[in-house]
Every structure is written in structure tokens, then in C-alpha cells.
Write a structure and sequence with these properties.
By secondary structure, this protein is α+β, with helices and mostly antiparallel strands. Helix content is 38%, strand content 17%. Strands 8, 9, 10, 12 and 14 form a five-stranded antiparallel sheet that branches. It has a four-stranded antiparallel sheet with strand order 13-11-15-16. Bound molecules: iron/sulfur cluster (2 copies).
């Protein structure tokens, strides 16, 4: 079997995608059919369908996923995270990162090869189009539309249309399908900013899938760069078995019945690799898996399918290139229990518990009372002392709400406030200013405080009304500015 990967010495690459003269080495991988390709293809089309339909799916009357950057409301699986949910979002992000670390430690780059949008769209959308118009690399196969005068422009138009579809779908995750539908059906002059976003994203998609391609995985993707830190010797990787494959030999077909005795001179022992080069020719990042674990390998499994086909033809056992681990390939005992496989789930469990506890402790509203800007207190006409305040209220429910604020002690002090009751839409936040005017007698003692109660004026029928009590430390002549602990007391005293 002749090698399909023979290049003149001066054109031998220095990197998988770089020639010796510094020019780009364009990679046109040969498609290798096999079980793994079939499975990856089925998953890829399912993921494309999912990506396209998610913006149209609703849960509890909300979009399944909507990342509204302008209002900073992030809806994920029907739960809306508000701008004040920094802790929840931080826990969610930490959880996702730890999960990625854990999955990488166990299954290596399974994400890259099977589910990453770059691989999914490149290998199962853009490359098939390329093969249709330019022909399939290897064996000089011509695509059904290769060599026609319209092939090149048709390919570019198709690339452009798919990039536009990707850009619009991508935008739907941030603005919702209703807004998107409205923008598509009206003039771009009415919505220049989203139009510009779609234009830029379309351009980036076209650049990525038409030109940049595997460079994104090799150069730009941080996940790829972190692989050496995330994998260990027992992580699952796509690997070549050198103990079985080396020294490389010739492509001779073994008898189907391997128990047959060989007559004649015994030939020197050779490995199962016949150096056909198909594993290299099929690699979308242009590497030779036989050189060992490499950062460029995205675990796409194409070399497994390619080599399995060769082994099958030669009546040799499949799996010369296979899913395995560095330890197994070196003949070491596999170790399922390793520090990172124990530590990551422990962290994940702690983060998940913190997330659930924080989430379950959230009330239907979030109220914070702070000291007003400027002087902490002022002398008012009539001898009263005024403490300027700022009250921030967030309505966490999905319905409009009305909150009423009142003081517990109305004899010695009174409250003037910008707006009372305060009307808030679903998920809306408002900061209002006010003043607590207190008689000097109310400021006697070490920690004079005003007790405020916030109640929801329009609680839905049958629902337990929302009530929250807050303490606010009052200041006046002879009092000091409260230290941090007192400030915390000001914020909230409990709720419901
Ligand atoms: S590893 Fe398999 S596909 Fe690669 S050169 Fe050897 S026989 Fe060919
Ligand atoms: S070496 Fe194999 S698994 Fe890795 S990127 Fe190349 S073809 Fe895919």
C-alpha cells in the first residue's frame, strides 16, 4: 500500500500547519469512514438541531436559554439570574470549570472531538460542502460538482448563507427569537447595533470556517492549551500502540486462519503498522498520531477509523490506534482512583451544595438599605436629625410587584421617601433615596437604630405575603460612623 503522505524534503512541515518557508500548510483531510465517524455524525446533527431549536423552546413561560446582556438577566433552564446574583453566577461558572477539569481528567478531549461547535460545524457542515464542490482529498476523487465553473462562487455563497444562519442563531441566544424576528423583518436602519453584530459575527464565522479552521484549535482555543495540565497518564486519549505497531512493516495480508504454519525462512519480526500514512492523511490538524500524545490532537477519532479499515483489509486485529491511556499503552496497570478524580468531584459537590443552598434561601425580593451619599446626617429645621438613606429593591418574581416601606417607631421618627409604594416589574431593580428624620431623643444610647418593614402590597391571593424587617443605624451629633459590622446589620434583618 503506497504512502499517501509523501512530501518533498523542502516541503516537510516544521509544525503540522506550517511549512519550512513559513507559509501555511493547508490541510485537506481525507474522510475515513467507520463506526466512530457514524456515531460522531449522528451526535453532530443532533447538536446542530439542538443549537437551532433552543432559542425557540420555553420553560415555565420563559426561554430555555436567554443571555440578555443589556439588562444582565441570564435565563438558564427557565431560571433567571439577576445582576445581583453574582454569587450564584460565580458558583455556576466555578462548577462548569471544575466539571470540565473532571471530564478532561477522565475522558481527555472528548468535548473537542465530539461536541465542540468548531468540530461539529467544520467537520459535518463546511467540509462536506467543500468535498462537494472541490472534490474529496486522497485517491484523486472528484466531488459531484467539482471542476464546474460555478463551483467556487457557489461554495462561497453556501458558506456565507450558513455563516449568516449561525450568526442569527447565535444572536437569538442574546436577544430572544421575538426580537430577532422583528429585526429580520424590518429595516436595518431601525436597529443598527444588532445589524452590525450579525454582520461582524457572520464575517467571523466565514473567516473561521473558510480560512482559520484548525488554527482555532491549535493556536486560539485556551482549552486546547490547558490539556497538558488537565490530563494525566490514566486519562482516556486517542493513541497509537507502538508496542504493537513498531517496527513498521509492509502491507501484507495475513491468512484469515492465523494458526496456519508459515513455511520457509522466518522473516524478521515487524509490527502491525504498515506505514500507509492514512492516519496522517485523515487528521484534520495535520499531525501524526504515531509520534505520541500531542497538543494538536483534538481526539476526533478519524485516525482510529482510518487505521481500523487498514487492519481489517489486512486481516489484522483492529485497534492499533484506539481509545486508551498513556499508562495502558505503556503496559502499566490502570489507576481509576487518582487524586484529581477524587478532588474534582469533592469540589463539584461542595459548589453544587453551595449553589442549591444559596438558591433555596432566595426570597421573592432582595432589599438592601444603605447610607446616602454625602454627609451621614443633617440638622433639619425643627431640631430633628436627618439620616439620608438609599434603598435598593429587586423584584425576583416573574410578576409585577409593589413594595411598601414603613417605620416601626413613628412617634420619634418619620420617613420621607422618593416613592412609596415602589412599583417594580418582573426581575426589575430600583434604587430610591429617602431620609429618616429622628427626634434627638431617638438617638440616645450606643446603637440607635431605625426599624423598617418592607411588605409586598400586591401579594398574589393565597400566597404568603412578603415581609422583611431591616435595621438601620442612625447617626447624629456625638455618634460615630458605623463600622463594617454595623453596616452589615443595616442591610437586612431577615425576611418573610
Ligand atoms: S497506524 Fe495504521 S493508518 Fe497509520 S500508518 Fe500505520 S497502519 Fe497506516
Ligand atoms: S491524531 Fe487522530 S484523533 Fe488526533 S486530531 Fe488527528 S485524526 Fe483526530
Amino acid at each position: 500500500m503506497p504512502s499517501v503522505h509523501e512530501e518533498p524534503a523542502q516541503q516537510q512541515p516544521v509544525l503540522s500547519t506550517l511549512n519550512q518557508d513559513g507559509s501555511r500548510r493547508w490541510i485537506k483531510p481525507r474522510l475515513s469512514h467507520g463506526r466512530l465517524l457514524n456515531r460522531r455524525r449522528a451526535l453532530a446533527y443532533f447538536l446542530i438541531l439542538l443549537f437551532t431549536t433552543i432559542p425557540y423552546i420555553s420553560l415555565n413561560g420563559k426561554p430555555l436559554v436567554l443571555l440578555d446582556l443589556t439588562t444582565r438577566h441570564f435565563t438558564i433552564f427557565g431560571k433567571t439570574f439577576l445582576p445581583t446574583d453574582t454569587l450564584l453566577l460565580a458558583l455556576l461558572l466555578v462548577g462548569i470549570f471544575v466539571l470540565i477539569f473532571l471530564l478532561s481528567a477522565l475522558f481527555g478531549r472528548v468535548w473537542c472531538g465530539w461536541a465542540c461547535p468548531q468540530t461539529v460545524y467544520m467537520e459535518f457542515v463546511f467540509r462536506p460542502i467543500e468535498r462537494l464542490f472541490d472534490g474529496a482529498p486522497g485517491r484523486g476523487k472528484k466531488g459531484p460538482l467539482a471542476g464546474k465553473p460555478f463551483s467556487k462562487p457557489a461554495k462561497i455563497i453556501l458558506y456565507l448563507l450558513i455563516s449568516m444562519y449561525l450568526a442569527h442563531t447565535f444572536l437569538a441566544y442574546f436577544v430572544g427569537v421575538e426580537n430577532l424576528r422583528h429585526w429580520i423583518t424590518s429595516s436595518p436602519l431601525n436597529h443598527p447595533a444588532p445589524f452590525l453584530v450579525v454582520l461582524v459575527v457572520t464575517g467571523l464565522m466565514l473567516f473561521n470556517f473558510g480560512f482559520f479552521r484548525e488554527q482555532l484549535c491549535i493556536i486560539a482555543c485556551p482549552y486546547g492549551r490547558f490539556q497538558s495540565a488537565m490530563l494525566d497518564r490514566n486519562s482516556l486519549i486517542v493513541t497509537y500502540d507502538p508496542r504493537r505497531g513498531e517496527p513498521r512493516g509492509k502491507a501484507t495480508r495475513l491468512p484469515a486462519d492465523v494458526s496456519l504454519k508459515v513455511v520457509g525462512e522466518p522473516s524478521p519480526p515487524v509490527g502491525d503498522c504498515v506505514d500507509c500514512g492514512l492516519c496522517v492523511a485523515t487528521c484534520p490538524t495535520g499531525i501524526d498520531i504515531r509520534n505520541g500524545l500531542q497538543m494538536e490532537c483534538v481526539n476526533c477519532t478519524q485516525c482510529i477509523d482510518a487505521c481500523n479499515a487498514v487492519m481489517t483489509k489486512l486481516n489484522r486485529p483492529r485497534g492499533l490506534i484506539r481509545y486508551s491511556s498513556q499508562a495502558l499503552i505503556a503496559g502499566e496497570k490502570p489507576r481509576l482512583l487518582r487524586p484529581r478524580v477524587v478532588i474534582y468531584p469533592a469540589i463539584l459537590l461542595a459548589v453544587a451544595a453551595a449553589f442549591v443552598i444559596t438558591l433555596s434561601n432566595q426570597g421573592p425580593a432582595e432589599i438592601t438599605i444603605l447610607r446616602g451619599i454625602g454627609r451621614p446626617f443633617v440638622d433639619l429645621p425643627g431640631g430633628e436629625i436627618g439620616n439620608p438613606i438609599k434603598i435598593k429593591i429587586t423584584n425576583r418574581t416573574d410578576t409585577p410587584a409593589e413594595y411598601f416601606i414603613e417605620l416601626a417607631d413613628t412617634k420619634a421618627m418619620h420617613l420621607t421617601i422618593q416613592e412609596n409604594p415602589i412599583h417594580l416589574g418582573p426581575g426589575e431593580s430600583k434604587t430610591i433615596t429617602g431620609m429618616i428624620a429622628a427626634h434627638p431623643s431617638a438617638l440616645a444610647g450606643d446603637h440607635p437604630a431605625a426599624k423598617l418593614t418592607v411588605t409586598q402590597a400586591n401579594a398574589p391571593a393565597g400566597a404568603e405575603p412578603f415581609v422583611q424587617h431591616l435595621n438601620f443605624t442612625l447617626m447624629g451629633k456625638g455618634q460615630h460612623r458605623p463600622h463594617t459590622a454595623e453596616k452589615h446589620d443595616e442591610k437586612q434583618d431577615g425576611h418573610k
